[in-house]
């Protein structure tokens, strides 16, 4: 099953980084707040090069009016968030707005958010990196399955 393969891929990524868990959920229409970053213990801001990270596998069952990314890891520490979006139900679901923690729009490679693949069962991977403790910068790999 493609969704299970995606979960296993994300768990492998987190295992390579240290500890962490993959958040899985089904998301109907409305706004969706993603889980917080997993921050490894030890080190201090500006000195610790270990990133804070998290991942989620979301099966879309309705159009999301917004996706709210978790709070950044704080100044001096990188944050990484990987999101797998699976088209469930009848498909054709979209995300109309992506926000950094709060009301600041996420910033995207190329200047605009991607148009998600809408076929039932398709999977899009969206990666976010936070370099300044506040803003999330996104890129997408569309229709990986």
Number of strands: 9
> Domains counted in the coordinates: how many?
1
Number of helices: 1
Class derived from helix and strand content: mainly beta
Task: Outline the low-pLDDT stretches.
Answer: 40-48
Give the helix proportion (percent range): 10-25%
Strand content: 35-45%
Strand order of the biggest β-sheet? 1-3-5-8-9-7
Distance between the termini: 10 Å
Shape: globular
Query: Taking all residues together, what is the mean pLDDT?
Result: 75
Major β-sheet annotation: 6 strands, mixed
Q: What Rg do the Cα atoms give?
A: 15 Å
List the secondary-structure elements in sequence, H or E. HEEEEEEEEE
Structure description:
It is a single chain. By secondary structure, the chain is mainly beta. The protein has one domain. Helices cover 11% and strands 35% of the residues. It contains 1 helix and 9 strands; from the N terminus they run αβββββββββ. The chain has one helix spanning 2-17, and strands at residues 22-27, 30-33, 52-60, 64-68, 79-87, 98-99, 107-108, 123-130, 136-141. The strands form 2 sheets. The chain has a 6-stranded mixed β-sheet, covered by helices on one side. It has a 3-stranded parallel β-sheet with strand order 2-4-6, with no helix packed on it. It starts with a helix and ends with a strand. Mean pLDDT is 75; it is low at 40-48.
